[in-house]
Amino acid sequence: MDLDFANNAGLLIPILLVVAGVVLIFSAVKVVPQGYMYTVEQFGRYTRTLSPGLAFIMPFVDRIGHKLNMMETVLDIPQQEVITKDNAQVSCDAVVFTQIVDPVPAAYEVNDLIRAITNLSMTNIRTVVGSMDLDQVLSNRDDINARLLKVIDAATHPWGVKVTRIEIKDLTPPGDITEAMARQMKAERLKRAQILEAEGDRASAILKAEGLKQSQILEAEGRREAAFRDAEARERAAEAEAKATEVVSQAIAAGDVNAINYFLGLKYVEAFAKLASSPQQRTVIVPADFAGLVGAIEGVKALTDNVKRPPDAPRPPSGGGNPSPFATRGQAMEGFLEGLTVWHWVGLGIVLMTIEVAVGTFDLLWVAIGAFLTALFALVVPAPAGGWQGQMVFFGVVAIAFVISGRTLFKGLRTRVTTHPHLNDRLAGMEGQRGEAATNFDQGEGKVKVGDTVWLAKQSDSTVIVEGDQIVVTGSENGLLKVRLA
Known about the structure:
The protein is α+β, with helices and mostly antiparallel strands and 486 residues long. Helices cover 56% and strands 20% of the residues.
């Protein structure tokens, strides 16, 4: 029995020694995480600070006092009711960003560091907000944040804490004050709108007056110019009348009776024409010597014919033998159509393809294909079905069918032409101009009227543009104007 006890005691002692060694090792070896610092106390008195990493302390003599988080920490300041300088009650809360820079004061200079910073922030918020009017509180958050940061950072410096930022989260005035502020804002905006409307009416009236003044000036200048021209025309007419009278007088003096007959017949006809065309006459008075009037006309006609026709020239036939110009043109057009050949249709297709390459509408492509197929039709189908009438009917049906099918089946290939330098330069030069929406914009695209021209356009922002809205051009892209509300 004594032998067994001795053997058990011999085994127990090494086990106890191993356990004691493990305990000593765990008591002496400490691992400090990154972002933390531990304070070491020897019999309750601070001796040193352990930095992140592996550290050793004296077992049973040294112990870890405080484990301090050295990273920046966010503290939520509870919401509280604050009375402003003008006796308005405001609900206010905030967030404070703090960081321990010296672990020893933070551990031993203040008890419950988080609670101390929270209470300090709440009291200073009441102090700062209470020293300002409601309007200043609502409009000067940056000033409030700066003042709070300065005061709280100075108060927490002895504790080894750095306050990096403090931000007011929410400032909520009472409901009645909020409603009064909304009415005030609405009244202010209505006031500004009325002022702008009055200024617009004033500018419009000034422009209208300037336009009326300019139009009256131009109209007066036009009347003056017209009066000068009328006077000049009357002067020329008087000179011509005087010259005619002089010539007639010389002819009468020379014994030529035809001159006086011509002069009197012309005045007779003019007077009768005025009598017949007068708007005040319901009945035309025919002179009793109407036959004499006809004879005078015939005499004037014979006189002018004798003057214009040489003595040996033959007289023109009484009946008209010239064909109608419309009949001549119709015969020429019919002759051209009857002479249509395969090469005419091939040439038309080549011309349409060339225009399509220059313009890029895709419609001319299908019409050109119709021209080529018509050339094939004229080559294969004999007359009369393959005559010019059949060719024209075949070309019209095929071209229309191809255009409709091409627009339907190849809708995705119809892209806007963006390689026209003149169009792109013109669109780029319109930036900054104003106009109005000609249609409602659907999916960001529509039509606008700038000046006297309607353009395709797309929106440069997400606002809703309807017909009649005033717009301003902000640029161009892919052959479209980019616009926004003015």
